[in-house]
């Protein structure tokens, strides 16, 4: 018996990276994973991989900046399955890596539209269904940089801080409805986002990407950066009955990076 048997989980931005890993792990533990994202091709590949491994999943095209589409997907999932048990607000973009004063307003607002307003809209349209069934779990995928600062990616870090507090607000608002809300704060995880970041740093520094990766590994007390499954299993815990007394909490998964 899986840890989330029979539950219906919507995971935004789940066509690759951390979102894909979350969808795969939840399906492995008995949930129906609703894969969402903008790439139909990638979404269908994830569904095929999950279903061929014995799990259950479906793909719904979704851009989290499209409010009408979020409403449609939420309604379609609820009407088809009669419940939505889990929402993982994972979709996000890094935005330009330059100092705050060099940002154009449109660049800043784009990052907030995806990372903050997108998460708000998904929560807005899913919560009423959870209230009907008197249960639910919401997880905001934030970042260690929603807790600490760093001299790069200012819009991204600001949005991750917003996600952290959004989870706490929602935890307090919806506790009476038996809806638990928590945030997860990944450190450096080997995803396309981190790969792109390293490539950018390689170009700037003139060092090889392999050398920079070794330097990044060394900054972690555990000796290496993480993998998407490290985050996925943290999410699994939070949405399982094992975490029935956990709400409004922050789960930091960073190999000890922020403990130094």
Automatic annotation (TrEMBL):
It holds the Pfam family adh_short_C2. The keyword Oxidoreductase applies. The keyword Isomerase does not apply. GO terms for molecular function: glucose 1-dehydrogenase [NAD(P)+] activity. Keywords: Oxidoreductase. Its EC number is 1.1.1.47. It comes from the Archaea. Belongs to the short-chain dehydrogenases/reductases (SDR) family. This is Glucose 1-dehydrogenase.
């Amino acid at each position: 018996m899986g840890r989330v048997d029979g539950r219906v989980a919507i995971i935004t931005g789940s066509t690759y990276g951390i979102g894909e890993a979350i969808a795969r792990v939840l399906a492995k533990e008995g949930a129906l994973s609703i894969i969402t994202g903008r790439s139909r091709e990638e979404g269908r590949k994830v569904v095929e991989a999950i279903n061929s491994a014995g799990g259950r999943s479906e793909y719904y095209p979704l851009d989290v900046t499209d409010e009408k589409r979020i409403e449609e997907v939420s309604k379609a999932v609820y009407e088809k399955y009669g419940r939505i048990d889990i929402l993982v607000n994972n979709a996000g973009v890094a935005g330009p890596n330059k100092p705050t004063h060099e940002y154009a307003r449109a660049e800043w607002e784009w990052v907030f539209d995806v990372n903050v307003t997108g998460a708000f809209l998904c929560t807005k349209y899913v919560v009423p269904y959870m209230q009907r069934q008197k249960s639910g779990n919401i997880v905001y995928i934030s970042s260690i940089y929603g807790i600490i600062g760093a001299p790069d990616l200012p819009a991204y870090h600001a949005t991750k801080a917003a996600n952290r507090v959004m989870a706490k607000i929602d935890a307090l608002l919806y506790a009476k409805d038996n809806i638990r809300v928590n945030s997860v704060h990944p450190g450096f995880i080997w995803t396309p986002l981190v790969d792109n970041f390293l490539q950018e740093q390689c170009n700037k520094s003139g060092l090889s990407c392999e050398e920079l990766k070794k330097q990044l590994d060394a900054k972690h007390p555990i000796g290496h950066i993480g993998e998407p499954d490290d985050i996925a299993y943290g999410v699994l815990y939070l949405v399982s009955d094992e975490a029935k007394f956990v709400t409004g909490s922050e789960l930091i998964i960073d190999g000890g990076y922020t403990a130094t």
